[in-house]
Amino acid sequence: MASYFNEERSAEIVNERMGRDINPRFREIMSSLVRHLHDFAKEVELTQEEWEFAIDFLTKTGQICSEERQEFILLSDVLGFSMLVDAINNRRPAGATENTVFGPFHVAGAPERTMGDNISLDGKGESCLFIGRVIDLNGAPISGAKIDVWSDNADGFYDVQQPNIQPKWNNRGIFTTGADGRYEFKGIKPVSYPIPDDGPVGQMLEHIGRHPYRPAHTHFLVTAPGFQKLVTHTFVGDDDYIESDTVFGVKQSLVAPFAHTPEGPTEWVSKFDFVLAPTHP
Amino acid sequence: MASYFNEERSAEIVNERMGRDINPRFREIMSSLVRHLHDFAKEVELTQEEWEFAIDFLTKTGQICSEERQEFILLSDVLGFSMLVDAINNRRPAGATENTVFGPFHVAGAPERTMGDNISLDGKGESCLFIGRVIDLNGAPISGAKIDVWSDNADGFYDVQQPNIQPKWNNRGIFTTGADGRYEFKGIKPVSYPIPDDGPVGQMLEHIGRHPYRPAHTHFLVTAPGFQKLVTHTFVGDDDYIESDTVFGVKQSLVAPFAHTPEGPTEWVSKFDFVLAPTHP
Fold this sequence. Notes:
The structure is a homodimer.
Chain A: H1 10-16, H2 24-44, H3 48-63, H4 71-78, H5 81-89, E1 127-135, E2 146-150, E3 172-176, E4 182-188, E5 193-194, H6 200-207, E6 213-214, E7 217-223, E8 230-236, E9 255-256, E10 259-261, E11 264-271, E12 274-275
Parallel strand pairs in A: 1-11, 1-12, 8-9
Antiparallel strand pairs in A: 1-4, 2-3, 2-7, 5-6, 7-8, 10-11
């Protein structure tokens, strides 16, 4: 009788049913999830019709997923859940460059480039020189750091979204720092773009009165032995969407300067230092 | 700056982003959902790998859904969420028969039967006479009540799960009460069965140390003008799984007597009155 369902103790009853010899971490996660899900339903007094709507939404979200599309990650992103998980797992000492979401467009194995190379292979967009250093918390240069960079092209698409239009590895490359910790390469000043909004997540955004845009940004994955992996972007500060990134990826410290150069109105320079935190403080 | 992400105010920041002119109920639901999801991630300090596991689980759960299978409903069921939503939406005055989950196996349009008919068409299983009355809270008979009944067969499958094996409408039928409110029909003493456990939900049950079985039950949908729709089961009390229904559908008041009859060891009688609550108390 003790285990029969009742509304008041619903979550406890479900959680008490778990076996004795299960993985303790899985028990902790599932217990908390069940408690919060039940609290949610009770708080809003979810109706049967709303439950049916939710079942249908989740089903459609799963069914639109494919090799090229991950709608559940998109859902996690627009609800700020991805950024929260990123934040929880990447708390850093003051002064270290902050993390932000990894996103779905990184491709492992990009070509190794030489400092000064241009990673924009399609000749589109406004040229930008990216310069700076990879340093530790004391400002000392980090030698042998790998800077894996990727961004959209001037039309707002990553190369993998347009395999028949853009050159392979367009706006991608890996640079390795020398003893001075410096990096320097050419690319484009990135542009803002909408996340795929023709599926269930796009419809949800419309219902909650939000746009699907991300402000212009360049992705960086910076690694060096003895230091925490840094997954981040630099953002263009005057972007229309800088204060309303649909995936909540912007942090104040990641808004980078993009300055004009004497070479012309479509020539930019963006200087940004990556400060890595040590693996073992 | 105010809307940039930070860990501490993560849920508020996401919710503040919602538009002004959206459906107030949708705002209430989404705000609560975001708050509880973020609280969950913070409480367990969800790791990146666990997040990836969850994304993969949800994706597989969506992708296994088909015309014949609804894995997200199954997930909701085994987490007690379906029962909770049912409970919230069907609070009844004392004395009224309690609701339980509808389940995925009801089929609209079952044949109208005459009192006394046998709904078991495949000749399998132990015969059972179901008798009782449909009455109001004062014990007065309700005339013209429709009793839509469905159950598995003796092998533990509903007819729709075995379209090429069982006769169509096996163990299904609709009965209409007369002035005395009485019903009477023959069927089988139902048997316990596992929910479909060869998908992601089955794997989850295994990880939390739970079996996939439902105790034996007969489904009833009882409707009458002026009364609240009753969606319920009656359960066989001595079933091995009566205290551990994997979807938490059992309530003490729904455990029905199944008594032997003088006709033989495989002949049963189960007497149960359905007490309907008025639509407008």
